[in-house]
UniProtKB/TrEMBL annotation:
Organism: Tropilaelaps mercedesae
Record's protein name: Kelch-like protein diablo
Superkingdom of origin organism: Eukaryota
Boundaries of every BTB domain copy: 11-80
GO biological process, one term: protein ubiquitination
Record has NADP as a keyword: no
Described function: Probable substrate-specific adapter of an E3 ubiquitin-protein ligase complex which mediates the ubiquitination and subsequent proteasomal degradation of target proteins. May have a role in synapse differentiation and growth.
Keyword line: Actin-binding, Kelch repeat, Repeat, Ubl conjugation pathway
Lineage: Eukaryota, Metazoa, Ecdysozoa, Arthropoda, Chelicerata
SMART domains: BACK (SM00875), BTB (SM00225), Kelch (SM00612)
């Protein structure tokens, strides 16, 4: 079909948008777009039905060309430069696949510096799901969001709407108050008049009494509209505890905010230090310190760790004498470990991840040979079962989940005695493994984590060489299109469209039943500060944490943090209580 439009073969309509013309076939357009279907099959009085040239109002010419090309070729390139053109146009033409892909792209771009603008854009174009995602991101990252220029451009009504939320993630109401005053001081002559309205949404009674006296009273003294609010806050501090509880139930401004979810901790499970250990510790993000957690029931290193339904599974590993099948389960609510069903096979240096509410245990070493086998645990039946084996044995393998698929990254093949750069992908729908693009470097014992729709392979080793290099794989990226989204689908596509691994595409010409394909390239990320292998890797609030590991000589107690917005690594200020390699890590609700 694409070659026919290029040659103008049998084209029977010319579309015009903002002076830009595009030739097309009515049948193809109607098959792929409900908008065009209604236009070309409407009642006889609908003039566009018979016109040879149709003018499309409210559509940019560049967007028209991109979307016509998508309908015929099944591909479209979405990036920061064109997403604001494509999304409204796709919405108008009812190309749901493209519109959803634009929303997915913007979701991945969310950052404290741009989330308010993305939220406003999504609201303008009726993208309710993206609005909800942006709202959650803004609430979770409120303290960082208000430090950026977008916050200062908000209207008073928009600031009021933001700080009214019960879900703001703040350590204290002082942070909300300071944000409001920061906004006011940006343009004092006009914004001072909004103080009364805004302070209605600041929970002044929750501010420390000293802060009220020393800061707030001085700031608000001249505002008549704030006088009663300040008196109310002062009176609150004179109440007895039981009176404060009653006050909270009747006065919204005295009710503590309830951020989304409980506070999280970075949990570090067992490891090698230098022998297998039982100890578990956690990093409290809010208090910026390490805390001790209940020990494992038995020594365990080289295990896989995963979180399922809020509980932590420590799967397989090595107890200092044997490779084990046992699985330990930690419940943060009870703050205790219990036994879970055992694996089918003994596995250490395995990879573990959760996909579709199922735990997968991949590869590893059973004490005699490297494994290409894999198995999964379904909590509904509470048992492990074998799945299709990989094409090659992989011990010290990294595993991650992206786009509904399971990635097995690198590792060591004992048969060939080679560290691996190869990657395999498992599709649970077909119970099949297939190859993916090779990494840039061979990596055994690499840490693997997923952040912002990309898979990161961190450190590892190739023989005696311990790496500090890092690389990442983003599906559908190309050498020329870093940070973009590509969609396959459309009128002439030989398979349904693929967006981040899920099957989609416009109705009409795309045949059904074909399996999705994943394309992409590995690209280098800045090196870590230290060379590490056998480290734990986990993502939290837009950053990647690399925990412990060893440098080939000694176990490491340090944690490095990668911020993709700054494209740089920093070292966490505080170290673990002891150096650990072959440890498992997870982000869980704080038990405290």
């Amino acid at each position: 079909m694409a070659h026919m439009i290029r040659k103008d073969d049998l084209c029977d309509v010319t579309l015009v948008a903002n002076g830009v013309m595009a030739r097309a076939h009515r049948l193809v357009l109607a098959s792929c777009s409900p908008y065009f279907r209604a236009m070309f099959t409407g009642p006889p009085g609908f003039e566009e039905r018979r016109l040879e040239t149709v003018k499309l109002q409210g559509l940019e010419g560049e967007a028209l060309l991109l979307l016509i090309d998508y309908i015929y070729s099944g591909q479209i390139h979405i990036d920061e430069d064109n997403v604001q053109l494509i999304l409204p146009a796709a919405g108008m033409l009812q190309l749901t696949t493209v519109r959803d892909a634009c929303c997915d792209f913007l979701h991945r771009q969310l950052h404290p510096s741009n989330c308010l603008g993305i939220r406003r854009f999504a609201d303008l174009h009726g993208c309710a799901e993206l609005v909800a995602v942006a709202d959650g991101f803004i609430e979770q990252n409120f303290v960082e969001v208000v430090q950026h220029e977008e916050f200062l451009t908000l209207t008073a009504a928009q600031v009021a709407q933001l700080i009214h939320s019960d879900k703001l993630s703040v350590q204290g109401e002082e942070q909300v108050y300071e944000a409001v005053m920061f906004w006011v001081r940006f343009a004092p002559p006009t914004r001072q008049r909004a103080l009364g309205e805004l302070m209605q949404h600041v929970r002044l009674p929750l501010l420390p009494q000293e802060f009220l006296v020393n800061r707030v009273e001085a700031d608000l003294r001249a505002s008549h509209d704030c006088k009663d609010l300040l008196i109310e806050a002062m009176k609150y501090h004179l109440l007895r505890d039981e009176e404060k509880t009653l006050f909270e139930n009747t006065m919204p401004r005295a009710k503590p905010r309830q951020p989304r979810g409980k506070p999280k901790i970075l949990m570090v499970v067992g490891g090698q230090a230098p022998k297998a250990i039982r100890s578990v510790e956690g990093f409290d993000f809010k208090k910026d310190r390490w805390v001790s957690l209940p020990d494992l029931p038995s020594r365990r290193c080289r295990a896989g760790v995963a979180v399922l339904n809020g509980q932590v599974f420590a799967v397989g590993g090595f107890n200092g004498s044997l490779r084990v099948r046992t699985v330990d389960l930690y419940d943060p609510q009870r703050d205790q470990w219990t036994q879970a069903p055992q694996l089918e096979a003994r596995r250490s240096t395995l990879g573990v991840a959760v996909l579709n509410n199922v735990i997968y245990a991949v590869g590893g070493f059973d004490g005699a040979t490297g494994l290409n086998t894999a198995e999964c645990f379904d909590p509904r039946v509470s048992e492990w079962r074998d799945i299709a084996p990989m094409s090659i044995r992989r011990s010290s393998v990294g595993v991650g989940v992206l786009g509904g698929l399971l990635y097995a990254v690198g590792g060591y093949d004992g048969a060939s005695r080679q560290c691996l750069s190869s990657v395999e992908i498992y599709d649970p729908k077909t119970d099949e493994w297939r190859p993916c693009a090779d990494m840039i470097s061979k990596r055994s014992g690499a840490g693997v984590g997923v952040l912002n729709g990309c898979l990161y392979a961190v450190g590892g080793h190739d023989g005696p060489v311990v790496r500090k290099s890092v690389e990442c794989f983003c599906p559908f990226e190309t050498e020329a299109g870093i940070g973009t989204t590509s969609i396959n689908g459309g009128a002439s596509s030989s398979s349904p469209g693929v967006i981040s691994g899920s099957v989609a595409g416009p109705s009409g010409f795309a045949p059904h039943g074909s399996s999705s394909t994943v394309t992409g390239v590995w690209r280098a990320v800045p090196d870590m500060m230290l060379a590490r292998r056998n480290a734990g890797v986990v993502a939290h609030e837009g950053r990647l944490y690399v925990v412990g590991g060893d440098d080939g000589t000694s176990n490491l107690a340090s944690v490095e943090v990668y911020d993709p917005a700054k494209n740089e690594w920093t070292m966490l200020n505080s170290f673990m209580q002891q150096g650990r390699s072959y440890t498992g890590v997870a982000i869980v609700d704080s038990p405290f």
